[in-house]
Amino acid sequence: MSSIKKSKQEIIERIKQANHITFIGHRHPDADCLGSCLAFHYIVKQNFNIDSIVINTDKMPKSLSSMPGIGDIIFNAQINTLEKKDVLIVLDAGDIDRIGEISNIVHEFNEVIFIDHHKSHDLKNTTMAYVDIEAAATAEIVADICDEYLSTIDSKTATALYCGLVSDTGGFIYVNTTDKTLSIAAKILKRNVDMLALGRVVIKRYNEESIKALIHVYNNIIVGDDKRIGYIIIDEGISSANISVSECVMKIETVFIGFIVRETEKSFRVSLRSRCEKDIVVIAESFGGGGHAKAAGFEVSKANYSKESLAKEIYNQVLKLLND
User: Are 114 and 131 in contact (CB under 8 A)?
Assistant: First the structure.
């Protein structure tokens, strides 16, 4: 089954009955995660006059600091941040646990609505779900659910939605892009998307720190013996630099699957990308993560791995996947 759905109308009707709504996305948020949360928040406030907030249990990503509306999000949110617990809407999270410590109290909400385009596994305490893995982005699902309100959204809402779509489709060139994606994008464009603001978010710019990190990365890319696998281990000192697998490893002509291991204080964060028919989400899932066939990721504790042992285990799984 490609999706697990309540009807869109059921979700809208439940939202209309809410006294307060908390929107939340996954830790280490990307543009689709934050854009979806912000857009849904704005649509609710503009059309239903319902009190709502957007939170995230992680810090604000430097790469998204110029996203319009980012100041409306409460970052580093903790349990005591939540003065009201009525309806919780979880967006783009993959699994409930990926929202951080708030996952420990989801049972305290009157309603937990889970909306996503990732293959989801753990939806504990979820009361309503709309999971459509055929959608290109969670922003596409939000726009679809709120279709009857798209003709009146303001520029800030339109820009948040469009940012999510552009980000998760690679500017509408990834294989997840469909005619429905483009149809929804066309509707949103009519609502005065701020293209200059969008460009500041989705077109990558480099500061001096990132340039130094890129030099280090390109000097330390490891390509496997058969040339189909490439990866990088980024040490803690430069792990915060805004560098992706796609812009370095996946540009190597022979590489079909690439990954980055990023070291943080207590964990390793891993991003995987593929440009072949193999489904790399199975590798991410084996480490407790998730994602899509072409883009996936996970996080593991340093208590369980060294960076070298983790890279070796991922490499061996990728090699097996390619050879199967």
Answer: yes
